[in-house]
Design brief:
There is one protein chain. By secondary structure, the chain is mostly beta strands. The chain folds into two domains: about 30 residues, no CATH class; about 90 residues, Jelly Rolls, CATH 2.60.120. Helix content is about 0%, strand content about 50%. The protein has no helices and twelve strands. The strands form three sheets. Strands 4-6-11-8-9 form a five-stranded mixed β-sheet, with no helix packed on it. A four-stranded antiparallel β-sheet has the order 5-12-7-10, with no helix packed on it. β8 and β9 form a beta hairpin. It starts with 10 loop residues before the first strand and ends with a strand.
């Protein structure tokens, strides 16, 4: 090399960064290997299964619960909710929002039963325990609203 300035911008750290050359007062020279800031890792949440769903709890007429999560390429989010107040005129409503790539399935009881698949809204007037499986997202947050 014919000049110290030629060191500026060459690869360093096995190609993971580039050199940055700067001059200070009194002839001081600083040579730094600048590496890019790594992209933050997004983890799926809750990424569970049907045997271990998030228990939303028991809802009564006028109650609601909100759950949030993130699905990424094949991850799963499972929830369980129970309602017994069949006198509630609107019944149980489940609404998914926040990520247009996500959908959910609803099983009418934790031990098996009628299955509704690939929806973003669901309403049921019969009391019971419901297992909800959210899937299909591309890494954005989703919100699942359970209301009576």
């Amino acid at each position: 090399m014919s000049s110290l300035d030629q060191l500026n911008g060459i690869p360093c750290n096995s190609g993971a960064g580039t050199t940055q050359l700067s001059y200070g007062s009194g002839g001081a020279v600083t040579l730094t290997c600048a590496t890019p800031t790594p992209t933050p890792t997004i983890n799926p949440t809750p990424n569970n299964n049907a045997a271990n769903p998030v228990n939303v709890g028991d809802l009564n007429c006028g109650n609601s619960a909100t759950e949030q999560g993130v699905n990424i390429n094949g991850s799963n989010a499972w929830y369980q909710v129970t309602f017994t107040d069949t006198l509630c005129p609107s019944g149980l409503t489940i609404t998914l929002s926040g990520n247009t790539g996500d959908v959910f399935d609803v099983q009418t009881s934790a031990s098996g039963g009628t299955l509704t698949t690939g929806v973003t809204n669901f309403t049921e007037t019969n009391g019971g325990t419901y297992l909800v499986h959210v899937y299909g997202g591309g890494g954005a947050n989703f919100q699942l609203l359970f209301s009576l």
